[in-house]
Amino acid sequence: MAGSxxxxxxxxxxWGESHGRGIGVVVDGAPAGLALDEADIQKYLNxxxxxxxxxxxxxxxxxxxxxxxxxxxxxxxxxPISLIVYNQNxxxxxYSEIASYYRPGHADYTFDMKYGFRDYRGxxxxxxxxxxxxxxxxxxxxxxxxxLGITLLTYTRAIGPVEIKASPCELLxxxxxxxxxxxxxxxxxMPEEDAAGRARSYLEQCIKEQNSAGGIVExxxxxxxxxxxxxxxxxxxxxxxxxMLSIGAVKGxxxxxxxxxxxxxxxxxxxxxxxxxxxxxxxxxxxxGGTLGGISDGSALILRTAFKPTPSIAAMQQTVNKxxxxxxxxxxxxHDPIIVPRAVVVVEAMAAVTLVDALFVNMSARIDAVQxxxxx
Amino acid sequence: MAGSxxxxxxxxxxWGESHGRGIGVVVDGAPAGLALDEADIQKYLNxxxxxxxxxxxxxxxxxxxxxxxxxxxxxxxxxPISLIVYNQNxxxxxYSEIASYYRPGHADYTFDMKYGFRDYRGxxxxxxxxxxxxxxxxxxxxxxxxxLGITLLTYTRAIGPVEIKASPCELLxxxxxxxxxxxxxxxxxMPEEDAAGRARSYLEQCIKEQNSAGGIVExxxxxxxxxxxxxxxxxxxxxxxxxMLSIGAVKGxxxxxxxxxxxxxxxxxxxxxxxxxxxxxxxxxxxxGGTLGGISDGSALILRTAFKPTPSIAAMQQTVNKxxxxxxxxxxxxHDPIIVPRAVVVVEAMAAVTLVDALFVNMSARIDAVQxxxxx
Amino acid sequence: MAGSxxxxxxxxxxWGESHGRGIGVVVDGAPAGLALDEADIQKYLNxxxxxxxxxxxxxxxxxxxxxxxxxxxxxxxxxPISLIVYNQNxxxxxYSEIASYYRPGHADYTFDMKYGFRDYRGxxxxxxxxxxxxxxxxxxxxxxxxxLGITLLTYTRAIGPVEIKASPCELLxxxxxxxxxxxxxxxxxMPEEDAAGRARSYLEQCIKEQNSAGGIVExxxxxxxxxxxxxxxxxxxxxxxxxMLSIGAVKGxxxxxxxxxxxxxxxxxxxxxxxxxxxxxxxxxxxxGGTLGGISDGSALILRTAFKPTPSIAAMQQTVNKxxxxxxxxxxxxHDPIIVPRAVVVVEAMAAVTLVDALFVNMSARIDAVQxxxxx
Amino acid sequence: MAGSxxxxxxxxxxWGESHGRGIGVVVDGAPAGLALDEADIQKYLNxxxxxxxxxxxxxxxxxxxxxxxxxxxxxxxxxPISLIVYNQNxxxxxYSEIASYYRPGHADYTFDMKYGFRDYRGxxxxxxxxxxxxxxxxxxxxxxxxxLGITLLTYTRAIGPVEIKASPCELLxxxxxxxxxxxxxxxxxMPEEDAAGRARSYLEQCIKEQNSAGGIVExxxxxxxxxxxxxxxxxxxxxxxxxMLSIGAVKGxxxxxxxxxxxxxxxxxxxxxxxxxxxxxxxxxxxxGGTLGGISDGSALILRTAFKPTPSIAAMQQTVNKxxxxxxxxxxxxHDPIIVPRAVVVVEAMAAVTLVDALFVNMSARIDAVQxxxxx
Lengths: 376, 376, 376, 376
Hints:
The structure is a homotetramer.
Chain A: E1 5-6, E2 11-16, E3 22-28, H1 38-47, E4 65-67, E5 71-72, E6 75-76, E7 81-86, H2 108-115, H3 131-147, E8 151-159, E9 162-163, H4 168-173, H5 176-185, H6 193-208, E10 215-222, H7 236-245, E11 250-255, H8 259-262, H9 266-269, E12 273-275, E13 281-283, E14 291-292, E15 295-296, E16 301-307, E17 317-320, E18 326-329, H10 340-361, H11 367-374
Antiparallel strand pairs in A: 1-2, 2-3, 3-7, 4-7, 5-6, 8-9, 8-10, 10-16, 11-16, 12-13, 14-15, 17-18
């Protein structure tokens, strides 16, 4: 098991290496009858494209997706949707040197330990290009969520030490379209112009020092019905955590207040319920981030994912080669000094995939709902 | 799917509610030939027992485990091991009132939304007693790890705002037995006496104010061979994250430096490799927390899990009842002002279960190893 | 993985050995709100009880089931339902001799090869008592099917060379209650009195010769909506086949005409469609046994399962002992000369479990149905 | 879940329709270090190619496979192997008429019932071309088995009423290379020239009558170590049954004597053990077909799979159209009057995939083996 499949009912299986023929995903369990074409997916893929600013790799990749199966006359058929993005513009010579040693912060050493050897070209399967399959699948998941009135808003919360000021709840209180516009306006996908400016300066400093930066991606989900997620191991929180930590370079995950909640008190952290003017049950605050006991409570989901700094840096580093010698290296080539902006859509994609699966799994939770479904 | 099964090859299935007949787990995939008796499991369960200090609920629960299957003549047979702890000392009357309203911070509301009604006695399936099954299974997993030279060290890093000073690496540098002794000495399971003292004062203040506290549990794993974990969705990090976020009240998870890494730089965060005096490959630091690309790198695993404050507090809170009215409540009864010390063993158990599964899944990663296994 | 879990969404996990503390099952994914008590399950378990005729073992087992979790105030809660039947009346001494050798036709040798040793008492995990968990879970599944208007009719088609005359379609044309009554009237569960008489004589002859018999169980399912089952690996036929071949002593499985279809022609075997008087699509015949392309077509499901003769016989047999010597043995003790009548309910249970899972998995097959489910 | 993934550890995920861009499979869990190139897979695919005799469709399909990922420098890397066969030579016009009605014996009606509509071109996902993915994956599985000394021999046992005479055990007693040659000599893949001749005459008669035939495929596996397969739901028999019944047009499955065993007696059907001259435990007969209690016993596996006659026939048939009218149809186009010879390699492929998975799952069955694996 190479662990390339994710999900229970809405399952995605990704494949592909940085310098192989291509990268792809098989989406199994997309419902029949969903309008879908390549543009729906390409729109998502374009959000992870490099080359859009000086903070991302100057490689030019078209990353044009093709739908190979599962769509007929513009609609999904219910059978597996196979998506492929052919690799182009690979320059394997760039990577010939790194075959002989282990780059710090990369999976070179662990792949060799696990498999005895590795496809060293561009990181092989541990390349950031592996996320193409996730994003393509996430585009389909997001479209399913859209038909159910569920919306995802994902952006960069922090780059290095530079963080936006607004809390998730403050952002949710703003006009959605305006926020989206603000996020798209700057290449760092930060919803605050001021923070984006400071982050830009910070990154320029990093580049000058042949160094790199990490950051935090935040994802807010509105419109999620209450009752989604299973009470024990398949908690919504648990599967979202797995989804996020399965992305390369991710080192931390939080729901709602996350680690800050651990320093709070019950009285401050509990979200009190109250009846809205329309008579529905709501929460006065959302420290929990949209779940209680692992099940959605009808308020917005708030997830936060921490990315480590890009490990590929031009500065001198110590490491070892395969002959067992200590050596010094400088990693040349086309690398992002920060991957966070490009990871925004990856986080959104994995969240979407996880939520669709949870929604489908939940459909048999009540006998009366099952009866209503099958008896006319 | 109520999501009560965890693991791919080493699978655990838990069941049971706070006030039903009992709580249990079926462990499927424990290898045959492991010496195992009830004392091995009871030892673990005793670590999550309440009533050991004034900071945990005064309920007296014996929580005596019985092995119902899968062990013959003192050894596991390879078939499912069914473990049960009968519930005792339940006082359902304590909970009759809460049937009518939704406790803030609890899963009452979400269970009702999902299932249409709920077993309201003591939290039902969302009770902390649900972790008994996890801990019992974890005891078996830990015994398997022990036979492979893999050791877990788990303790309270923080209670509310009070945190220990030593870093994971500093603790790992100390004598293991001494650290273990220090952790066991205080009822809060903190490895630093000073911090434990301040945490105790903080908790006393919480109790006085009818409030509660959260905290952070840290787990360090040594002896893990390199190469464990799968490269994409079944990353060791991903499954550990899922394991931790599947525990009730957990809101955050970190590997290694976690969120702090996101504010660091590549140069500072990359763990440089070097050749040890014995000629083996090692890392000079361990910011990554023991994995690279989701696969263990031979250094210690470092995991950190954030628990929110106990939601059951005696202070006045606002909420709603099932008739749709805003009400004020005070939750009486026997509740822990802090669950973190009792959660230490739950974290350790879930980590152990996850690691055993990853070790078993990895066994077919290389054709030469498979051949060596099957050909004589 | 000891492979003790079955199903995708409606999952059952069985455990227990013949001479351990008990036998049980955890049913995860039963919808909330289903009325359920122990009598519902006991009714099913009673159908597999031994001691009801001279053709089944004279052991007296009460096999009283207890519900340990997942039911509150008479209804399922949506959380795992743990069921247990304590073992009673075990006489371990009966089995002490067989520890040293391998009984022909039993799993003694293969368990030793796999696990290095075995629980030799009464077959351990490979005992027929393992089916108690399946039947208990099947009782819940059958109750779910009943609420959806789906009915199972299961009976003995053949015992040794004695087979009933009526075809499945002929039986389906008869009055359901009368057929059920006929089946229950004779201890062999054959729906034809005449065949039952001849089978009885045949079995008496087998007993006299210290020999045993096999047979065929047939299961007919009516009321199944069309569209259930997935098109490729999760075909309804495929999962039913797995369900049946997972029962001990089963050596063959057929849907509809089964092997006979392979000798037929397309023209004779194709079920032609026609419009019924009510205007609905139906088939003029049912050679296929209720599925097309692995998906239910609205006609009755017809499944047939072949059981080998009971391997435990009193006649002299050759075998080997663990010291590597050829020996002769006679197996004494309380054994059924035929297990088929007791297996009827096991087949029905496994069919029910498989169908419930397929029904639940199907609920997200169409986007319009998903939208109708979630949007009000 | 469209159910397009098969296996626990060695997982295959297939996708593609008859008239889409192509057909493919992702093989996840193939061990690293296996020598593999496209020729290894093409060799298998060529065995299912049409156009090799007048008994298979005259369509010309090159079905050239491409490896898109998972292989580097001629060896598998341990990461997912994505294989694709582009569709060529599709003539969608051939199928335009059948969009309006339901072909008897096909999945047209059930797909419409499940999904609301269907890709009607050439059967879409329910086309026989779906098996290309299975065969491509099976080629990899078979290569893994080969490195472990496990060999599969698969052939046509029967075509319509014409069956070969030799029993599986008689065939196993013959020279393997000679049998293989005999099978490959005739386009029907029957190991007996005489039977092949009569089958040819029978098929010619079928064609003349615008009719079609079914048949039986038998697969024999030698070299399988004892101890493989799990004792309850993951019995080797159960997974093989699922594998076979998941192939389109399959209606029955048997292990060893199968249905014939149900009419036998315990004394006749039990395989007695004896010590071989080399001192190893063996069975004197093999009625069981290589398993006891669902676990391999070291003797040859014997599986038999029944295929119904090709449903596409040129003779006049009654059916209904989507307007709810009774109509008469004649199916024109390029169809096999028998699919059995082309299905031989599909059966072999699915058997190989199932066995590799069972071998990998078994690796953690014993604690001493796990220790030996991980401790040096």
